[in-house]
Amino acid sequence: MKRTEIKLDEKSISDLKRIVKNGKRAVREITRANILLLSNSGKRNDEIASILNINRDTVLRVKKRYIQYGIERSIHDAERPGQPKKYGEKETAEIIALACSSPGRGIEEENGLESINREVVRVIL
């Protein structure tokens, strides 16, 4: 099988190192960043898989995605189709503000949030 060479520029390397070092990303994203960094340093696919304790196919998939689509798509998951969100950012902010307000505040004020399901509030909070 043909070996896939990954050569990253300095900016990409520093961005990937920041993702790995920060650690406040999804584990998948950190793993993908590590795959690209190790590939750039000349490690073989099976070595990378062993170092990161992942399947070799994962290494191949990330490298293939990098070659086809670039660094952003190889690190981050693609948007998936699904039901659109029922409540936007404004409504979400209102729900959070209402939840954080003092309990003495009555529901006399009409804010349109009376009809929101308890489960929706739980998911938002």
Output the keywords.
Arc Repressor Mutant, subunit A, 7 helices, mainly alpha, elongated
What is the fold's blueprint, element by element?
Elements: H1 10-22, H2 27-40, H3 45-52, H4 56-69, H5 71-75, H6 89-100, H7 118-124
Helix pairs in contact: 1-2, 2-3, 2-4, 3-4
Brief characterization of the structure:
This protein has two domains: 66 residues, Arc Repressor Mutant, subunit A (Orthogonal Bundle), CATH 1.10.10; 36 residues, no CATH class.
Counted by DSSP, the helix tally is 7
**What is the succession of H and E elements?**
HHHHHHH
Which regions contain 5 or more consecutive residues with pLDDT less than 50? Answer: none
Average pLDDT across residues?
A: 84
Question: Could you please say which CATH topology of the largest domain applies here?
Answer: Arc Repressor Mutant, subunit A
Q: What is the alpha-carbon Rg in Å? A: 22 Å
The overall number of domains is: 2
Shape descriptor reads elongated
CA-to-CA gap between the ends?
Answer: 49 Å
Strand content: under 5%
Number of strands: 0
Structural class comes to mainly alpha
| CATH architecture designation of the largest domain | Orthogonal Bundle
The helicity comes to 55-70%
- Sketch the major β-sheet: none
**CATH C-level category of the largest domain:** Mainly Alpha
Protein name: Transposase
Organism: mine drainage metagenome
Pfam families: HTH_29 (PF13551)
